[in-house]
Amino acid sequence: MKFLIGLHIDPAVLDALTDEEKAGLGSGHGRFIQALKDSGELILTQAPADPSQSVVVSVRGGQPVVTDGPFLAAKEFLGGFYLVDCEHKERAVEPAARIPDAAIPGLGVEVRQVLFSD
């Protein structure tokens, strides 16, 4: 079964971290990625650019309209994700709990089963 492990970021929380804490996040993700590769469960991981660099596309009157992003009026944004292949949800939760973000209040780690992929 495939699961998306989403990382939800509050920029204010990241900005408040020390350089050492930020480095710890980075190295923690590196160890996490390697562990998933070693177990054969990692399919893909991606981290999009900051939402301020996004655009929102909608269609009005049959014409595309492009506006500066982000779309959501929220302080949190999707900071990245891991796509994993695990036997069941409980197994997907095990490695997700090792993501360093999970231990920092204001950062979120969400595990969601993928219902469709091509």
From TrEMBL:
Residues 1-113 form the YCII-related domain. InterPro entries: Dimeric_a/b-barrel (IPR011008), YCII (IPR005545). Signal peptide: none annotated. The lineage of its organism: Bacteria, Bacillati, Actinomycetota, Actinomycetes, Kitasatosporales. It comes from Kitasatospora griseola (Streptomyces griseolosporeus). This is YCII-related domain-containing protein. Belongs to the YciI family. SUPFAM superfamilies: Dimeric alpha+beta barrel (SSF54909).
